[in-house]
Amino acid sequence: MNKYKKWYEQIVQRAKDRVLNGYYERHHILPRSLGGLDISENIVCLTAREHFICHWLLIKLTSGQDRYKMINALRMMRAKNPNQQRYETNITSRVYESLKEEYATLQSKIRRGKGNGFYGKTHTEEARHAISEKNTGNKLTKEQIEKVRMAKKGVKRDPFNPEWLEKIAESNRGENNGMYGKNHSVDAKSKMRDKALGRKQSEETIRKKADAVRGSKREKKLCPHCDQMIAVNTYTRWHGDNCKQNHR
Q: Which of 47, 111, 115, 124 has the least CB density, counted as fewest CB within 10 Å?
């Protein structure tokens, strides 16, 4: 018998031999997610602290998918519940990180492929229409927008994989592009113009853009008409076929 099982059985046996006064939590000796029955012989009354420790020990006593279930059970015990006096212990950062990483890895394996509840299924046209109707006109509140903004603030995204970028570009080329063969109507162009007219960027946005390009060298291109090396971002507008030297 390893030490974790010994400690677990000691807590359970002590609980069987006493009567708790005041607050207690019911604990399934063999958890229901592992096949335990919801009967009195499989239930003991524990303090909040004992209940927490027992679920921690159950993680040590299980492996594979059973361990995933026990990690999830302990994770749920850390959630706030107004009806239960959860044990407010301080899990060390190392233990917390280890449990979260293992839980995420196991969850990814279990929910992948046939383990996904929607594997091999598609929404019916009726379901798609219902989802569309439910979401039409939905807008985030100012509080939700601020919450999303704060969650992303200071987070630096990893650079995109060039291969992935090429696949995205390829998927939107030619007939795959939503605007392929189409043109904006005069009315649409007028609306876009009116919306953009007078728009000014904030000083913070201007500063961020300046900081992003400061020190970088723009790619240049030789204009065959005026024989000058021109930055590519202005080449098309003022040089090439539009070069003044070309029209003399």
A: 124
